[in-house]
Amino acid sequence: MGQPNQTIPTQSVMNEVGSATTTEVVGPELVNTQPTKKKKASASGSRQSSACYDHFIRLHDDLVDTPTATWDGKCFHMRCVAHILNLVVNEGLKDKQLSITSVRDVVRFVKSSPHREAKFKECIEFTGITCKKLVCLDVSTNWNTTYLMLEAAEKFQDAFDKLEYEESSYREFFGKSVGLHSAFHQVSVVYCELKQATMSLSGVFASVGGDMMEKYNRYWRCATKMNKSIYFGIILDSRYKLSYIEWTFKDMYGVGSVFATGLINSIKESLQKLYDCYKQVDDQKHNIQTS
């Protein structure tokens, strides 16, 4: 299969608009940002800000109303062709996204450190793969780089299988998963560490800890705004339950803390609302089945 061509012509076609200058037509804020040399547009250059795009929409409307506009402005190019093509390709790959993500993850693992890449090369040599190329990661804005990544990774499938047994961190890396338990434990540990840092005898250490604690409190100190979902998994786990949350809050905020008491009550209230929501849905399904 031939390799797709990445370079796509995206030159805008615009006729002269009377005797107006470039600054008058496009606007000074866009003229100042124009490149000095013409380059071929690629998918990696398809980013556009909403403000800039809105300005071009207004520019297009002005050109259409201009008597000298060719074919009523239908030749004026508004969107990057590479950007549109990238959207089309991603839509076609949507059903295979899980498999593509798996390949992307193993490639990222190999290229994450020189040690892992060296170990992967040993696996390539051991399996007798003669291909001189190496695996490469794709770029989200380059429509054809996913194809190149998959094409390269396919040749090294045996090497990836060998790496699973040769590299101890390989299976550990892909066996990790983030759950509600880990989130709650990390949040509580970080708070205790920051609290200890603010009481340090070192002025610099205490200052840095205070700044970090201020940022922490901005997201986690307000009981009415913070997401209670990280506590639900702990409460519903028979190994912990609500009593573990209460014990942790005593360790974090102190025994008899007004904030801890209010947070516990807020968690109970949120959990009750979540239960009522699920119960309502279940009752509606039951009523439909019996009717």
From TrEMBL:
Organism: Pisum sativum
Molecular function, one GO term: zinc ion binding
This protein's name: hAT-like transposase RNase-H fold domain-containing protein
Primary location class: nucleus
Highest taxon of the lineage: Eukaryota
Keywords: DNA-binding, Metal-binding, Nucleus, Zinc, Zinc-finger
SUPFAM superfamilies: Ribonuclease H-like
Region (Disordered): 24-44
4Fe-4S listed as a keyword: no
